[in-house]
Amino acid sequence: MINKNGDGGADAGQPAVRAHDLRVRRGGREVLRGLDFAVPAGSVTGLLGPSGCGKTTLMRAVVGAQKGVTGTLEVLGRPAGSAALRPRLGYVTQAPSVYADLTVRQNLEYFAAVLGLARSTRAAEVERVLDEVDLAARATALTRNLSGGQRSRVSLAAALLGAPELLVLDEPTVGLDPVLRNALWGLFHRLADERGTTLLISSHVMDEADRCERLVLMREGRVLAEDSPPALRARSGVATVEEAFLALVAADADNEKDNAGADNDNAADDTRHREA
Ligand SMILES: Nc1ncnc2c1ncn2[C@@H]1O[C@H](COP(=O)(O)OP(=O)(O)OP(=O)(O)O)[C@@H](O)[C@H]1O
């Protein structure tokens, strides 16, 4: 896809994110347990799974903010966490990370300066992202006086500064009304279609799955499946991604039971051998 910076990052045909045997330990426990997946460049890819399955941990790893990562994790053609990736990524955390005592515009001016955007382009860039998230009319409002959904959009606007090639968005539509949710999904697809931006978007709401071109379905620190929504539905012969996910979970649980059974059989064999 498009590599705006032309600096040897994501090449045509190369995925924007590629993971192989990716593992993360948190609090003495392995919370990502050997993930293999790819995020195609220029795609809107959904990361779906129940609460606690590891979506945020995976996103933190992708943006280089997670400790205890092993295995392969390449982002825009470089190892995750490389300093060179910093200006090429936008990350929006679940909790809006903006300053309550600054206005919306002041927040964005501050983030534009921190990001090192050229002084001459900063003002125009701030106005552009304000328009993109539909907050131009609230630009002079103190952030603390905004609604939760508006504050989330200020965070999103900050992540859009500098037109990053990869946007990592952790549940960006939580708490938004259906009209706003629809508008944001429209923006996500415009960014992908018009700018070639890759978007990795987490959600635990399955009805958002069909808005994505590709899905990575997770459960308990593992990838259950990665495919397009129609392919996932067809594979399980069901009408919705939610049903496909439930079918995959059931198959996965059966597998685990079989493996546990096989382990017990092996243990029993060992005991018999020792007793013999
Ligand atoms: N700071 C931490 N220390 C230890 N374990 C953690 C920490 N943060 C999260 N975990 C554990 O890591 C696992 C994955 O958590 P993570 O936040 O990545 O899940 P998630 O899928 O994003 O959940 P949600 O949808 O609720 O945000 C969970 O079992 C969680 O308890």
TrEMBL record:
Alphabetized UniProt keyword annotations: ATP-binding, Nucleotide-binding
Domain called ABC transporter: residue spans: 17-245
Region spans: Disordered: 256-276
Transport as UniProt keyword: no
Record GO terms (molecular function): ATP binding; ATP hydrolysis activity
SMART domains (UniProt xref): AAA
Name of the protein in question: ABC transporter ATP-binding protein
